[in-house]
Amino acid sequence: MMTAILYYCVVYPLSLLPLWILYRLSDLVFLLFMSIIPYRKKVVQGNIEKSFPDLSPKDQVVLVRGFYRHFSDLLIESIKNLSISKEELLRRMDVINPEVLQELEKKGKSVLFVSGHFNNWEWFITSQALLVPFESYGIGMPLSNGFWDKKLTERRQRFGLNVVHAKNYKAIFQQDRPVSVLVLSDQAPADGRKSYWMEFLHQSTPILFGVEQMANEFDLTVVYFTMNKIKRGQYSIEFQVLTDDPKSLPYGVLTEKHVQLLEESIIEQPCNWLWSHKRWKREVPADLDALKASQKSKFEEKYR
Length: 304
Hints:
Blueprint: H1 2-15, H2 19-34, H3 41-51, H4 57-80, H5 86-91, E1 93-95, H6 98-107, E2 111-115, H7 121-131, E3 135-140, H8 146-156, E4 162-165, E5 179-184, E6 196-200, E7 203-207, H9 210-218, E8 221-231, E9 234-243, H10 253-268, H11 288-303
Parallel strand pairs: 1-9, 2-5, 2-8, 3-4, 3-5
Antiparallel strand pairs: 6-7, 8-9
Helix pairs in contact: 2-4, 3-4
């Protein structure tokens, strides 16, 4: 009940305000994060220290500050996302190379879009069906709060996106028409022993293997996209085809490629990744070499 009151009486009405007014609120939120409410500050500082070990303590403080500035804007833009119009949403995102999408449409093959929690992924999720020339799907896990899960899903779907539970994703590809599916693959996996382990931001990191598995199982074209922040409320989007023949790639190459591209994006705009996420909470398996060999063998037996 209180959640519904908060949504209808505070959050949604706020979303109706122009962004230039909401950014004044973002300035206040930023000050709160930096002084009174240091949201996950130890997590943020720890992640940045380990990911950029060569940065001086002074530069690390600058990066932390830059993250909270971006994160404050991201929260406000996410609120605006609840009611933003189709026209304003598209006006605030510039696709640098639309010809990539045009070529994908000509080929008529299902596409898997992959990226991470970098810049404003929520705006991309909401606009996916407007940007991409195929029926659009997003794969995710429901939120623990049923009301917020229902409302956010409803808002994300209002321009044509279909949100599908991760357990039911196979049904997406069992259709007789091409589809586009979005996956954000940089969250911490639930099980480190079912993950692909590689170096990411100077740390041994478990990576969700779903992108490579889905691409091979359903013969998907895989496209990495990155969003760059031009200024407040203005982003550019660039697409890069990683493969249209996943079975021609050796085991692990596809996963390594999209993770390396995300790392490059983060290094280019380091403040704009979700540093507050507990990304490295899984322990490295003691038998990592044997685990990797077993995973490779099982993958090749199934898909090669």
